[in-house]
Design brief:
Helix content: 25-40%
CATH architecture of the largest domain: 3-Layer(aba) Sandwich
Protein name: Aminotransferase class V
Number of helices: 13
CATH superfamily of the largest domain: Type I PLP-dependent aspartate aminotransferase-like (Major domain)
Organism: Kineococcus radiotolerans (strain ATCC BAA-149 / DSM 14245 / SRS30216)
Largest sheet: 7 strands, mixed
Distance between the termini: 34 Å
Shape: globular
InterPro entries: Aminotrans_V_dom (IPR000192), PyrdxlP-dep_Trfase (IPR015424), PyrdxlP-dep_Trfase_major (IPR015421), PyrdxlP-dep_Trfase_small (IPR015422)
Cofactor: pyridoxal 5'-phosphate
Keywords: Aminotransferase, Pyridoxal phosphate, Transferase
Structural class: alpha/beta
Bound molecules: 4'-deoxy-4'-aminopyridoxal-5'-phosphate
Length: 413
């Protein structure tokens, strides 16, 4: 048995089963939102009694809060290897961060993306006529080849890619793409939502210009994310939000906007969220080198091998060159939503089903009707993977005889 790598809150929570009784929840939906680390929960409990308005008040608590908020900014920057020309802008989420960046692209600049992206890294770009969306390849390497070939035309100012796919778990060769982008006069922005919970990134070492992240995927609660990277486009852009804190001076005729993170962070910030996100970053950074990767690889292998061994189960792109703990599968002949409901109702196993907010990619993978996604995290143990495998095995043997009850929401013969 391979235990969790780090303690998370809520582990072992008992959930009701459709036919009575309860069972500890097996959370295999970490890619959607991961449970908070115990260290994060402790840190939140520690700062919660002490917060007050930041950057505004002169009172003691305001000064403490301001220091906490700015310390969190520094920690998130350090986690990602941000340099002196970079800024850490706190946002609500990855979606928010990528939308912000999409509004900071200089006028007339062309953007390149592939259609394998999560909607958060597709729709902000796709709405501009100056964006080219290329079709993804048969695997992440081929998608990278197609992007490189298109970059080589020299037409682009920005390449936007996900570091890891939320559908297949495939990891893109980021350093190679960063080199190709820079050689072609472009910059590279990375959607780090799925990559950062599993891999370390260093903006300087990896040659990445911007990265977007979400706290709730990185073992901190909802509502805090960040855009980290080069400040020049951000300082030259219209403020993302217009309001208090983003200005230096407001006169009758003119507004002088702040530069740096303040420019895009109008309004009272989510101090507790930022502190939680920073604590998650610091906790992951303190893991021994390679520990995260080894944990993920062992669980992914167990998932892929176990699912692949079941007759009647199809695993999507089971053996990519490089991947995180995200595995998508189908049980052909059965709607993914029904299988997911069965796993939950009869076995207390949580997975995600559907098209994963990546409709174009899902359709290209033959998942137009939806797939099932199992995803692991630092709080996942091999016992949870084994419970999923046993539950799917039971479904494929007894599933055809079952019918999902529309009343009562449970399965019966
Ligand atoms: N990108 C990827 C690859 C994701 O998996 C997700 C979340 N499913 C997002 C972006 C969006 O993250 P959020 O909902 O936190 O904005």
């Amino acid at each position: 048995v391979h235990g969790p790598l780090l303690p998370v809150v809520g582990a072992g929570t008992r959930v009701p089963l459709a036919h009575g009784g309860e069972i500890p929840y097996a959370n295999l939906d970490n890619a959607a939102s991961a449970p908070a680390l115990t260290a994060v929960a402790d840190r939140v409990a520690q700062v919660l009694p002490h917060y007050a308005s930041v950057h505004r008040g002169a009172g003691y608590l305001s000064r403490v809060s301001t220091a906490l908020f700015e310390q969190a900014r520094a920690q998130v920057g350090a986690f990602l290897g941000a340099g002196p020309d970079d800024v850490v802008v706190f946002t609500r989420s990855t979606t928010d961060a990528l939308d912000l960046l999409s509004r900071a692209v200089p006028t007339g600049a062309r953007v390149l993306v592939a259609d394998v992206e999560h909607h958060a890294n597709l729709l902000p770009w796709q709405r501009s006529a100056r964006t080219t969306v290329v079709r993804g390849g048969a695997d992440a390497g081929e998608t990278a080849d197609l992007l490189e070939a298109e970059l080589a035309t020299g037409r682009y100012a920005l390449l936007a890619v996900a570091g890891a796919s939320n559908v297949t778990g495939e990891v893109l060769p980021l350093r190679r793409l960063a080199r190709a982008a820079h050689a072609a006069g472009a910059r590279i922005a990375v959607d780090g939502a799925q990559l950062l919970p599993h891999r370390r990134v260093d903006l300087g070492r990896d040659g990445i210009d911007w990265i977007a992240l979400s706290g709730h995927k990185l073992y901190a609660p909802f509502g805090a994310g960040a855009l980290v990277g080069r400040r020049d486009w951000l300082d030259a852009a219209e403020p993302y939000l217009a309001g208090g804190g983003a200005t230096l001076d407001v006169g009758h005729d003119a507004v002088r906007w702040a530069s740096g993170p303040d420019r895009h962070e109008a309004g009272s910030p989510n101090v507790v969220g930022a502190v939680a996100l920073a604590e998650a970053c610091a906790t992951l950074a303190a893991l021994p080198a390679g520990a995260l990767e080894a944990h993920e690889a062992a669980l992914r292998e167990r998932l892929v091998t176990g699912l692949g061994a079941l007759d009647g189960v199809h695993v999507v792109r089971p053996h990519p060159e490089d991947a995180v703990g995200v595995v998508t599968f189908t049980v052909p002949g059965h709607p993914a939503s029904a299988v997911a409901a069965y796993l939950s109702a009869e076995h207390g196993v949580g997975v995600r089903d559907g098209r994963f907010c990546a409709h174009r990619f899902a359709d290209a993978l033959g998942l137009a009707e939806g797939g099932l996604r199992a995803s692991t995290g630092v709080g996942t143990g091999s016992d949870e993977v084994d419970r999923l495998l046993a539950a799917v095995a039971q479904f494929v043997t007894t599933g055809p005889a079952l019918e999902y009850g529309t009343t009562g929401g449970h399965w019966g013969p």
